[in-house]
Amino acid sequence: MERLCRSRGRRPGALLVLAGLLVLSAHSAVAGPTERVQAKRMHDRLVGVPPAEAVLSSMEASLVANDPIAAAYTAMNEHLKAAQAWEHCVKTDPMNPRVWLWQVHAGDSLLKAGEREQAYLWLQQAKLAAPNASEVKALEAAIAAAHD
Protein backbone atom coordinates (compact mmCIF):
# COMPACT_ATOMS: atom_id res chain seq x y z
CA MET A 1 0.00 0.00 0.00
CA GLU A 2 2.82 2.42 0.87
CA ARG A 3 4.44 1.67 -2.44
CA LEU A 4 1.30 2.63 -4.32
CA CYS A 5 1.09 5.93 -2.47
CA ARG A 6 4.73 6.73 -3.19
CA SER A 7 4.40 5.91 -6.88
CA ARG A 8 1.51 8.34 -7.16
CA GLY A 9 3.68 11.09 -5.78
CA ARG A 10 6.29 10.58 -8.50
CA ARG A 11 3.83 10.84 -11.39
CA PRO A 12 2.21 14.30 -11.41
CA GLY A 13 1.34 13.92 -15.11
CA ALA A 14 -0.98 11.01 -14.35
CA LEU A 15 -3.43 13.42 -12.75
CA LEU A 16 -3.55 15.47 -15.94
CA VAL A 17 -4.18 12.36 -18.02
CA LEU A 18 -6.99 11.32 -15.67
CA ALA A 19 -8.54 14.80 -15.86
CA GLY A 20 -8.39 14.66 -19.65
CA LEU A 21 -10.10 11.28 -19.72
CA LEU A 22 -12.85 12.55 -17.43
CA VAL A 23 -13.47 15.52 -19.73
CA LEU A 24 -13.65 13.22 -22.76
CA SER A 25 -16.00 10.79 -21.06
CA ALA A 26 -18.26 13.60 -19.88
CA HIS A 27 -18.34 14.98 -23.42
CA SER A 28 -19.35 11.60 -24.82
CA ALA A 29 -22.34 11.44 -22.44
CA VAL A 30 -23.91 14.52 -24.01
CA ALA A 31 -26.17 14.16 -27.00
CA GLY A 32 -25.15 15.91 -30.14
CA PRO A 33 -26.42 16.16 -33.67
CA THR A 34 -24.52 13.01 -34.63
CA GLU A 35 -26.60 10.76 -32.35
CA ARG A 36 -29.86 12.32 -33.51
CA VAL A 37 -28.98 11.82 -37.18
CA GLN A 38 -27.84 8.27 -36.46
CA ALA A 39 -31.09 7.52 -34.60
CA LYS A 40 -33.20 8.86 -37.46
CA ARG A 41 -31.20 6.91 -40.05
CA MET A 42 -31.47 3.73 -37.95
CA HIS A 43 -35.22 4.16 -37.55
CA ASP A 44 -35.73 4.80 -41.27
CA ARG A 45 -33.80 1.64 -42.15
CA LEU A 46 -35.52 -0.58 -39.62
CA VAL A 47 -39.07 0.69 -39.89
CA GLY A 48 -39.25 2.57 -43.18
CA VAL A 49 -41.19 5.57 -41.92
CA PRO A 50 -40.07 8.73 -40.08
CA PRO A 51 -40.01 8.35 -36.28
CA ALA A 52 -42.21 10.21 -33.83
CA GLU A 53 -40.33 12.79 -31.76
CA ALA A 54 -40.60 10.72 -28.55
CA VAL A 55 -39.23 7.63 -30.30
CA LEU A 56 -36.38 9.62 -31.82
CA SER A 57 -35.48 11.13 -28.44
CA SER A 58 -35.50 7.72 -26.77
CA MET A 59 -33.33 6.25 -29.52
CA GLU A 60 -30.95 9.19 -29.24
CA ALA A 61 -30.61 8.59 -25.49
CA SER A 62 -29.79 4.95 -26.20
CA LEU A 63 -27.06 5.91 -28.63
CA VAL A 64 -25.57 8.47 -26.22
CA ALA A 65 -25.46 5.69 -23.61
CA ASN A 66 -23.63 3.54 -26.17
CA ASP A 67 -26.56 1.13 -26.40
CA PRO A 68 -27.52 0.76 -30.07
CA ILE A 69 -29.41 -2.46 -29.24
CA ALA A 70 -31.93 -0.57 -27.09
CA ALA A 71 -32.22 2.04 -29.84
CA ALA A 72 -33.03 -0.63 -32.42
CA TYR A 73 -35.62 -2.30 -30.20
CA THR A 74 -37.21 1.08 -29.50
CA ALA A 75 -37.46 1.74 -33.24
CA MET A 76 -39.12 -1.62 -33.80
CA ASN A 77 -41.58 -1.08 -30.95
CA GLU A 78 -40.05 -3.99 -28.99
CA HIS A 79 -40.29 -2.38 -25.58
CA LEU A 80 -39.58 -5.48 -23.47
CA LYS A 81 -36.38 -6.13 -25.39
CA ALA A 82 -35.40 -2.46 -25.09
CA ALA A 83 -35.92 -2.71 -21.32
CA GLN A 84 -33.67 -5.78 -21.23
CA ALA A 85 -30.99 -3.85 -23.11
CA TRP A 86 -31.21 -1.00 -20.59
CA GLU A 87 -31.03 -3.52 -17.75
CA HIS A 88 -27.87 -4.91 -19.31
CA CYS A 89 -26.36 -1.40 -19.25
CA VAL A 90 -27.18 -1.04 -15.56
CA LYS A 91 -25.70 -4.43 -14.70
CA THR A 92 -22.51 -3.97 -16.70
CA ASP A 93 -21.72 -0.46 -15.44
CA PRO A 94 -23.49 -0.01 -12.08
CA MET A 95 -21.12 2.71 -10.90
CA ASN A 96 -21.76 5.00 -13.87
CA PRO A 97 -23.05 8.37 -12.64
CA ARG A 98 -25.86 8.23 -15.22
CA VAL A 99 -27.11 4.79 -14.17
CA TRP A 100 -30.23 6.41 -12.72
CA LEU A 101 -31.12 7.65 -16.22
CA TRP A 102 -30.70 4.13 -17.62
CA GLN A 103 -33.05 2.93 -14.89
CA VAL A 104 -35.58 5.53 -16.00
CA HIS A 105 -35.27 4.34 -19.60
CA ALA A 106 -35.76 0.73 -18.50
CA GLY A 107 -38.85 1.73 -16.53
CA ASP A 108 -40.20 3.75 -19.44
CA SER A 109 -39.72 0.83 -21.83
CA LEU A 110 -41.46 -1.53 -19.42
CA LEU A 111 -44.35 0.87 -18.97
CA LYS A 112 -44.77 1.07 -22.75
CA ALA A 113 -44.83 -2.73 -22.78
CA GLY A 114 -47.64 -2.75 -20.23
CA GLU A 115 -45.45 -3.89 -17.32
CA ARG A 116 -46.45 -1.18 -14.83
CA GLU A 117 -45.26 -3.01 -11.69
CA GLN A 118 -41.83 -3.67 -13.15
CA ALA A 119 -41.62 -0.06 -14.34
CA TYR A 120 -42.39 1.06 -10.80
CA LEU A 121 -39.49 -1.00 -9.42
CA TRP A 122 -37.08 0.67 -11.85
CA LEU A 123 -38.51 4.07 -10.89
CA GLN A 124 -37.81 3.37 -7.21
CA GLN A 125 -34.18 2.57 -8.01
CA ALA A 126 -33.78 5.75 -10.07
CA LYS A 127 -35.37 7.85 -7.30
CA LEU A 128 -32.70 6.75 -4.87
CA ALA A 129 -29.99 8.38 -6.97
CA ALA A 130 -31.83 11.31 -8.54
CA PRO A 131 -35.13 12.00 -6.78
CA ASN A 132 -35.56 15.48 -8.25
CA ALA A 133 -34.50 14.80 -11.84
CA SER A 134 -37.10 15.79 -14.40
CA GLU A 135 -36.83 12.39 -16.11
CA VAL A 136 -37.60 10.62 -12.83
CA LYS A 137 -40.58 12.90 -12.18
CA ALA A 138 -41.85 12.31 -15.74
CA LEU A 139 -41.70 8.53 -15.33
CA GLU A 140 -43.42 8.80 -11.96
CA ALA A 141 -46.23 10.82 -13.54
CA ALA A 142 -46.52 8.37 -16.46
CA ILE A 143 -46.79 5.42 -14.08
CA ALA A 144 -49.42 7.22 -12.02
CA ALA A 145 -51.38 8.05 -15.19
CA ALA A 146 -51.20 4.42 -16.30
CA HIS A 147 -52.78 3.39 -13.00
CA ASP A 148 -55.88 5.53 -13.54
Describe it.
The chain has about 150 residues and is mainly α. It folds into three domains: about 1-30; about 30-75, no CATH class; about 80-148, Serine Threonine Protein Phosphatase 5, Tetratricopeptide repeat. About 80% of the residues lie in helices and about 0% in strands. It is built from nine helices and no strands. Helix 3 packs across helix 4 and helix 7 runs antiparallel to helix 8. The radius of gyration is 18 Å and the shape is globular.
Topology:
Blueprint: H1 2-9, H2 12-28, H3 33-47, H4 53-64, H5 68-75, H6 79-92, H7 99-112, H8 116-129, H9 134-147
Helix pairs in contact: 3-4, 4-5, 5-6, 6-7, 7-8, 7-9, 8-9
Quick structural overview:
With 148 residues, the chain is mainly alpha-helical. The chain has three domains: 1-29; 31-76, no CATH class; 78-148, Serine Threonine Protein Phosphatase 5, Tetratricopeptide repeat (Alpha Horseshoe).
Which descriptors would you attach to this protein?
single chain, 148 residues, mainly alpha, Serine Threonine Protein Phosphatase 5, Tetratricopeptide repeat, 3 domains, 78% helix, 0% strand, disordered N terminus
